[in-house]
Amino acid sequence: MSLDALKNRIPDHAKDIKLNISSLGRETVLDNQKKYGCFLASAYAIGNAEVLNDVLAEIEGKLSDEAIAGAKAAAAIMGMNNVYYRFVHLASAKDYRTLPAKLRMNVIANPGVDKADFELWSLAVSAINGCGMCIDAHEHELRKAGLTSEQVQAAVRIASVVNAAAAVIRAESAIS
User: Fold this and answer.
1) Which residue among 51, 120, 134, 166 is the active-site one?
2) H runs (alpha helix) in the chain
3) 131 among known catalytic residues
4) Quick one: which of 65, 118, 129, 175 is 20 to 30 A from 40 by CA?
């Protein structure tokens, strides 16, 4: 199992997804920790077993235990924050923006990996979950950390393709 196995799960009508999986697996604008962490955080955020297992097989030996834990933590904390902050952003009543969240988010301050890597993985998950407020916050932190537009875009491209692969696989498995 690996990205090749993931591509093999994708039917021909979604050939562009296969091609994008290949090109993103060879992406060089991100170092391996950033790239494979984005794949893993995205797969965890989506929660499709086939996609997750294929990504886990791909990253074997490519990410440290700390990076694996950090990518999983990014998916977990953004699963909570993206819902909360999307609500705050979309609610008509503006007073929610002034209230403290009162949610534990300690991992953001101490993710156990390079802060920029964790922010990048959090951005990828936020893109999948559609939280504009979180996307803006993480993108701002990434730019302060010196990441380029191309690096940020690569993370979101990974998230979008992992999401599309999971959607195709889910749809295909629903066909009787």
Assistant:
1) 134
2) 3-9, 15-25, 32-46, 49-59, 65-90, 106-109, 115-129, 132-144, 149-174
3) yes
4) 175
Do residues 81 and 103 lie in contact, with contact meaning Cβ atoms separated by under 8 Å? yes
Among 131, 147, 159, 168, the one annotated catalytic: 131
Instruction: Tell me which residue has tokens 């008509």.
Output: 92
Q: What is the pLDDT of residues 90-116, one digit of tens each?
A: 999 999 999 999 999 999 999 999 999
pTM: 0.95
3-174 sits in which CATH class?
mainly alpha
Coil, strand or helix at 36: helix
